[in-house]
């Protein structure tokens, strides 16, 4: 994989996802995924299935994250990676979004985060939002 600046992105769906997330537009971000998309959470073992589940999760994420920003991106034949930093409560969190696409549509999103203390805070806050 090679590092890409915003001007040299190779993946149109990934570029559109980044723009939607940076604009806080959850609906636009979710619409880029196939209806049978898969989301791999950094804190839940079983993958989430479907665009609507992904939309719900992204909606909760924009409520939990503060000072979110992408720092770098990497593009290759197997996918696109966006590195980010944010805050969850009083914890600094660093992570990556791994995007896979097929035929111009995103098919999969895997999120990985660190450090553990921030991941556990993320898990607690997301659980509170998603379980009502």
Automatic annotation (TrEMBL):
Gene3D superfamilies (UniProt xref): 3.10.450.50
Residue ranges of every copy of the SnoaL-like domain listed in the record: 15-108
UniProt superkingdom: Bacteria
Protein name in the entry: Nuclear transport factor 2 family protein
């Amino acid at each position: 994989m090679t590092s890409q600046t915003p001007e040299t992105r190779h993946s149109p769906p990934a570029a559109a996802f980044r723009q939607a997330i940076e604009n806080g537009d959850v609906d636009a971000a979710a619409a880029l995924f196939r209806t049978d998309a898969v989301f791999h959470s950094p804190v839940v073992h079983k993958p989430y299935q479907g665009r609507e589940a992904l939309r719900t999760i992204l909606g909760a994420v924009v409520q939990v994250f503060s000072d979110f920003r992408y720092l770098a991106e990497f593009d290759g034949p197997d996918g696109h990676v966006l590195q980010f930093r944010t805050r969850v409560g009083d914890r600094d969190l660093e992570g990556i979004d791994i995007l896979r696409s097929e035929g111009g549509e995103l098919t999969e999103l895997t999120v990985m985060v660190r450090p553990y203390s921030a991941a556990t805070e993320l898990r607690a806050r997301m659980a509170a939002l998603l379980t009502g």
